[in-house]
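Q: Please design a sequence for this.
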């Protein structure tokens, strides 16, 4: 997810803020909890459950609590100190609201017997994933926040609690978000193909517990929450005095939560890439030669689209150029040239490694409107070991065509990049560095004399720097393909020399 998409989704979804308690609920609970703490008693069964009520305008502020107002402390605190307390108190109120929403998802939907009877066990497992573990993490987190905040009216920094849970418990969110692609597909399929399931879901959504919010909104809660926690920490950090221990703790908490979100984003990207590869592999037909495995953990689709290829049937008798459509799939490491067969079937006509592809402009002798927007696609070595040239044409008005054309043109720029494989974990120390895990493969695009590489990770396209001591170069296939390209370059140069002498 991009930052823009995350922000847009948070604003669009109102579950977290709408399903919460009224100001009076929090005021009474806070006063009761504070009295219990001061009297030596505690209510261990306190949890953020109940029927959803208020709107955003009813959200509780720390300074509005009767216990705080009656204490007279507001007159002694500065505006900045009050804002600092509010920023921390919002973590508690929003977590309580979020947990109440999780209870709606688990008790109102997941544990509904009628809904359970409409789907098989595997679909139910995919649909709800590890939501019970997510709820348990939220319960523990909220309990720790309450025990810390309710000790005294003006409570100390909570970022140490945030940092601890990010380090030890929030990884549960990664497991949940990783499943989100399959979760969405399963829900969509069930709503279309299972009338009983759709009927029960629609009926449950209309009940008061849901506040007219759709079921899918509740499924999106965990990723929204972990993203919002990051925003809340940023707000705390903004209101923390510089150079204080509290600032250091807030920075650590922010770093820990940011890593969780990065992992979520990376895993979502990987799952979507894998899902896309699975879909593409189902569409392809290898009629004339042996099929190649499309699905790979290190492969992802960069561009696909339709271009026009000049027909080879052109003769001296019929000099008019004829173009027919070809459909290209350009992966990070491979190129497939296909012909479309039906709405979702493609027959593979040729394929090669991406580094063996070059795009070149036409010679000056090819003039006129017929060859406008045309270029030579040269395959230095295809799946049969042959060198092939194809005259292709893109439509200037088609944005998909243009993007594919520019991607093919850039193949020559990236084809000389050596590949390295990580043999020892590297944790990024700077913003422009790349985290690496053992077995990950990276395309190297730059090297320095100080022993640093800049590269692009194949699994997700992330770019950054890393030390050469943590990787080894993959030489076999890369060297072979580089030699093929060098032979082609020499042969082309020789041909040009011969043509010059002949003149």
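A: Design:
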């Amino acid at each position: 997810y991009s930052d823009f998409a995350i922000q847009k989704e948070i604003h669009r979804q109102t579950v977290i803020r709408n399903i919460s308690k009224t100001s009076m609920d929090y005021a009474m609970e806070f006063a009761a909890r504070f009295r219990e703490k001061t009297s030596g008693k505690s209510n261990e069964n306190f949890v953020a459950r109940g029927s959803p009520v208020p709107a955003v305008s009813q959200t509780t502020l720390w300074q509005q609590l009767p216990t705080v107002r009656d204490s007279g402390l507001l007159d002694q605190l500065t505006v900045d100190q009050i804002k600092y307390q509010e920023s921390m108190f919002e973590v508690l109120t929003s977590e309580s609201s979020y947990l109440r929403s999780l209870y709606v998802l688990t008790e109102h939907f997941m544990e509904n017997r009628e809904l359970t009877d409409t789907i098989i066990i595997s679909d139910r497992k995919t649909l709800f994933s590890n939501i019970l573990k997510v709820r348990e993490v939220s319960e523990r987190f909220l309990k720790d926040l309450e025990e810390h905040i309710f000790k005294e009216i003006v409570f100390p920094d909570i970022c140490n609690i945030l940092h601890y849970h990010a380090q030890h418990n929030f990884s549960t969110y990664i497991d949940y978000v990783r499943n989100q692609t399959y979760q969405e597909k399963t829900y969509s399929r069930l709503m279309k193909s299972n009338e009983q399931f759709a009927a029960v879901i629609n009926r449950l959504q209309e009940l008061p517990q849901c506040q007219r919010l759709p079921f899918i909104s509740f499924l999106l809660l965990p990723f929204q929450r972990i993203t919002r926690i990051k925003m809340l920490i940023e707000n705390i950090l903004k209101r923390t005095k510089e150079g204080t221990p509290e600032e250091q703790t807030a920075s650590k908490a922010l770093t820990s939560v940011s890593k969780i979100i990065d992992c979520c984003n990376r895993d979502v990207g990987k799952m979507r890439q894998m899902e896309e590869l699975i879909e593409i592999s189902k569409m392809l037909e290898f009629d004339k030669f042996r099929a190649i495995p499309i699905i790979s953990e290190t492969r992802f689709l960069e561009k696909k689209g339709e271009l026009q290829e000049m027909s080879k049937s052109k003769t001296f008798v019929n000099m008019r150029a004829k173009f027919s459509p070809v459909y290209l799939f350009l992966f990070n490491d491979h190129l497939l040239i296909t012909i479309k067969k039906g709405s979702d079937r493609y027959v593979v006509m040729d394929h090669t490694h991406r580094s063996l592809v070059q795009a070149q402009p036409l010679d000056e002798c090819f003039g006129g409107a017929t060859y406008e927007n045309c270029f030579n696609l040269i395959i230095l070595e295809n799946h049969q070991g042959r060198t092939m040239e194809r005259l292709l044409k893109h439509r200037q008005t088609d944005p998909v065509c243009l993007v594919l054309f520019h991607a093919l043109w850039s193949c020559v720029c990236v084809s000389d990049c050596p590949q390295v494989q990580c043999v020892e974990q590297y944790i990024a120390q700077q913003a422009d560095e790349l985290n690496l895990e053992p077995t990950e493969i990276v395309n190297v695009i730059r090297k320095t004399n100080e022993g640093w590489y800049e590269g692009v990770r194949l699994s997700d396209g992330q770019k950054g720097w890393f030390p050469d001591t943590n990787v080894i170069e993959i030489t076999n296939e890369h060297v072979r393909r580089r030699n093929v390209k060098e032979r082609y370059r020499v042969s082309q140069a020789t041909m040009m020399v011969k043509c010059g002498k002949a003149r």
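Q: Thanks. Anything notable?
A: The two ends are 59 Å apart (CA to CA). The CA atoms of residues 105 and 218 lie 6 Å apart.
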